[in-house]
Write a structure and sequence with these properties.
The complex is a heterodimer. By secondary structure, chain A is α+β, with helices and mostly antiparallel strands. Helices cover about 25% and strands about 35% of the residues of chain A. In chain B, helix 7 packs across helix 9 and helix 11 packs antiparallel against helix 12. Classes of the chains: A alpha+beta, B mainly alpha.
Chain lengths: ~350, ~300
């Protein structure tokens, strides 16, 4: 278990000071696939480097199973990193790269060679064992970097955007591969990415970061379906934001009044805004449906239809200055294009689907 | 291969050959030509007032390693020559080692500076190198002579009450050569280090390597080509150094370059000078072959 307590990192000083991590605390369980997700510059890589030991935090502690890591140099921490650039040793072969950590730990030769063989099999690189790292492809280098970091059996594996250099297909493959490896090895993975899809596919839990703080922590479904605030809702997936009025709240649901005057139940945080105030409601495009004007929660005019292959996006200009609302519908083979741009239509969504945001 | 492809290949070869021609001509006249003359001279007899007499003789080659006593006809080793050879070799090896000891950290320092300040550091390294060798050598002389800066300060502070004799010793020659040839060590090491990916250092730390292990197992193997090049660039000119041992060794600490100059100058024994020059060339080549082979083998233990 990793406990990060009030970690602050300030780069530079005076007027140039930049706060990369702002009093950040989080607890990561053992054997968890934990993802730090956020835009570039949000501090996710800084946090990873603090855990690895390449950066000393200005304040705060990092504890691994109750032991303070901050006082230890990186080469004493039972933590290994898969670098974004892989950072494989070009003067060593694939097998020698994987053996490096074990050699530095002074493990006996027989153990090293059996672990290296095991790792080569695990990442399916056994036939390439004696190649130089410059003689293998990007995807293979990625596997070697993984095997090298896993070989010393660290308590925690840190992955710094390891898939960003791979092409789309390979990335998909490696996502499943990483998930499998984490399952098989039982090592805690802390994965850094700016790719929301990657985060949703692989993680047990996701921490969404912005400006050096964690905005929300939760499982992929939790984060996607119930974003706590506008930043999270906006960063993950596509979202419609509409202005609504809070009629009353009870525990985690809220009665809201839409711009059309109709009322519906939505989800809200218990510590959210009070009744009577104007709030923002987030509705995912695929959770809403396009209906005739009469049965709609929100009537409007169909302004645009965009075909995406797997699905179609219907843009509706809501009446009363409600703005643009997108409805996503999955395409079926026999589905004909039934509505024309400019037609009077409406948008509806079931109760308890919209999420009242905290801001 | 069809005829057109064959023609194209031949044209390409011809173009390449033409590009090489200027360098080949230069090498032929400026390097190989004089070398052949030196080789021929080494098998002739010395003229009374310098120059050579056109009589075939192996006397000069014989004299490189042995001498016959003028009065007793006794055959002995030319230990004067051998001691000069040994001193040249020894001082050159030490200079290469010293320049490495000073140059490696310097190159590392420069390579880890921000990109825009690296050029400034390199310029600072290069400026002395562009200064006349004689001037720099006399500057060192000024520093280390008995009434020079170092002794004056040491005596002024009261650490010593007699000046330390540094000038006209092997130590002085070593200091001089280390100072003069240091940039030739720094430049190639820096060139290797600039290409070095410093992420690898982090990867090393991450994989439980201590600072020293990272230096030995990650940094050094990858900048070794630069170290090899630097060692050769320092070692070779040191072997034949002339000005530095002349000025700082004061004629007492002769090196090969001085010995050869003596034969062509005061001693008027051109054939011996020629034979000594060729011996120097052979020593350099043998040393390089051994060095490159030793380093090359270490580099790829798995074939």
């Amino acid at each position: 278990m990793i406990e990060i307590n009030g970690v602050t990192k300030i780069f530079g000083g005076g007027s140039d000071a930049f706060t990369a991590l702002d009093n950040l605390s989080v607890t990561i369980d053992s054997n968890e696939f934990f993802t730090l997700l956020g835009p570039s510059g949000c501090g996710k890589t800084t946090l990873l480097r603090v855990i690895a030991g390449f950066i000393d935090p200005t304040q705060g502690t990092v504890q691994l199973d109750g032991e303070n890591l901050v006082e230890q140099p990186p080469y004493k921490r039972p933590v290994n990193t898969v670098f974004q650039s892989y950072a494989l040793f070009p003067h060593l072969t694939v097998a020698q790269n994987i053996a490096f950590g074990l050699q530095m730990l002074g493990r006996p030769k027989s153990e090293i060679s059996s672990t290296v063989d095991e790792m080569l099999t695990l990442v399916q690189m056994a036939p390439m064992a004696d190649r130089k790292t410059s003689e293998i492809s990007g995807g293979q280098q990625q596997r070697v970097a993984l095997a090298r970091a896993l070989a010393p059996r660290p308590k925690v594996l840190l992955l710094d955007e390891p898939l960003s250099a791979l092409d789309f297909k390979l990335r998909k493959e490696m996502q499943l591969e990483l998930k499998r490896l984490q399952h098989e090895t039982g090592i805690t993975f802390i994965f850094v990415t700016h790719d929301q899809e990657e985060a949703l596919t692989m993680s047990d839990r996701i921490a969404v970061m912005n400006a050096g703080t964690i905005r929300q922590i939760g499982g992929p479904r939790d984060i996607y379906d119930h974003p706590a605030e506008r930043f999270v809702a906006d960063f993950i997936g596509d979202t419609n934001f509409i202005e609504v009025e809070l009629v009353n709240t009870s525990a985690d649901t809220a009665r809201i009044r839409l711009i059309s005057g109709k009322e519906i139940d939505a989800r809200a945080n218990p510590d959210g805004p009070k009744a009577g105030s104007k709030v923002t409601l987030a509705v995912r495009p695929e959770h809403a449906t396009l209906v005739d004007e009469g049965e709609a929660l929100l009537p409007g005019t169909l302004s645009d239809v965009v075909y995406f292959g797997t699905d179609t996006h219907y843009h509706v200009a809501l009446d009363g200055g409600g703005g643009d609302f997108v409805v996503r519908r999955q395409n079926q083979p026999d589905m004909a294009q039934s509505r024309q741009t400019g037609a009077r239509v409406g948008v509806t969504f079931p109760a308890n689907v919209g999420q009242v945001l905290r801001d | 291969m069809n005829a057109a492809a064959a023609l194209r290949a031949r044209n390409e070869r011809r173009t390449r050959f033409l590009l090489l021609t200027p360098a080949m001509v230069l090498l032929l006249f400026a390097a190989s030509g004089p070398l052949v003359i030196v080789l021929i001279y080494s098998f002739l007899t010395p003229g009374s007032y310098g120059g050579v007499e056109w009589n075939f003789s192996v006397q000069a080659w014989f004299n490189v390693v042995a001498k016959i006593d003028f009065f007793t006809d006794e055959l002995t080793f030319a230990d004067a020559h051998l001691s000069v050879f040994w001193r040249s070799f020894k001082l050159s090896v030490f200079t290469a080692i010293l320049t490495f000891v000073f140059g490696f950290p310097t190159a590392y320092f420069i390579a880890t500076r921000p990109k825009r300040s690296r050029d400034m550091w390199m310029l600072l390294i290069m400026i002395p190198f562009w200064t006349n060798l004689l001037i720099r050598t006399f500057a060192i002389m000024e520093l280390i002579r008995n009434e020079g800066t170092v002794n004056t300060i040491l005596m002024g502070v009261g650490i010593i009450d007699q000046p330390i004799q540094m000038l006209f010793t092997e130590f002085a020659v070593l200091i001089g050569m280390t100072y003069v040839y240091l940039p030739l060590m720094i430049l190639p090491i820096y060139a290797s280090m600039e290409r070095f990916d410093f992420n690898l250092v982090e990867a090393g730390y991450d994989l439980y390597a201590t600072r020293f292990q990272v230096l030995r197992r990650v940094i050094f193997p990858l900048v070794k080509p630069g170290v090899v090049a630097g060692s050769i660039l320092v070692f070779v000119p040191c072997l034949g150094a002339y000005v530095i041992p002349r000025v700082l060794g004061g004629g007492k600490q002769l090196m090969l370059g001085n010995l050869i100059e003596l034969q062509f100058g005061q001693l008027r024994n051109w054939p011996l000078g020629a034979a000594l020059s060729l011996t120097l060339l052979a020593v350099v080549m043998i040393a390089l072959i051994f060095y490159v082979r030793a380093v090359g083998q270490e580099e790829s233990p798995h074939g």
